[in-house]
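Please decode residue identities from the backbone states below.
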């Protein structure tokens, strides 16, 4: 968070200790969501509390630092930005070492998502934009480049 602030980004948070609240109630999840939508904060850091009930189609870049073991939870996270109303292609970065069990599980999950079957194929076909999903060292390099570029564009 501090590094993002030194780069000139306004940073907000959503975590489990916050109540849902309203758009006019500071310190609540919906207030933080609205600030992000309005551009008052450029980076929104969230725990699993933002996995459901929050619509962030105004955002097109997602960084996952802690990959859940349940693939449905990961899909829910990605669904916060990769949804109807999204006007940009989504970039999703999963920070996990490729040569670990977590990395192998994530790779299998991404392979399954790349080749949808049955009802999943219909759901994937309705998505409004494509999502580029990466992990490991590649994710780290690309994410760093994006943040540095956005930071330098602000100054």
């Amino acid at each position: 968070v501090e590094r993002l602030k030194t780069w000139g980004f306004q940073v907000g948070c959503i975590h489990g200790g916050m109540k849902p609240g309203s758009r006019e109630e500071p310190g609540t999840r919906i207030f933080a969501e609205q600030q992000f939508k309005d551009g008052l904060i450029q980076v929104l850091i969230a725990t699993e509390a933002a996995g459901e009930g929050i619509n962030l189609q105004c955002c097109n870049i997602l960084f996952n630092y802690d990959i859940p073991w349940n693939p449905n939870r990961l899909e829910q996270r990605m669904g916060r930005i990769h949804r109807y109303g999204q006007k940009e292609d989504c970039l999703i970065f999963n920070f996990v070492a490729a040569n670990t069990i977590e990395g192998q599980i994530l790779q299998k999950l991404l392979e399954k998502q790349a080749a949808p079957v049955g009802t999943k194929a219909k759901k994937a076909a309705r998505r409004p934009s494509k999502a580029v999903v990466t992990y490991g060292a590649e994710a780290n390099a690309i994410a760093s480049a994006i943040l540095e570029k956005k930071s330098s564009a602000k100054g």
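Observation: Confidence is low (pLDDT under 50) at residues 117-130.
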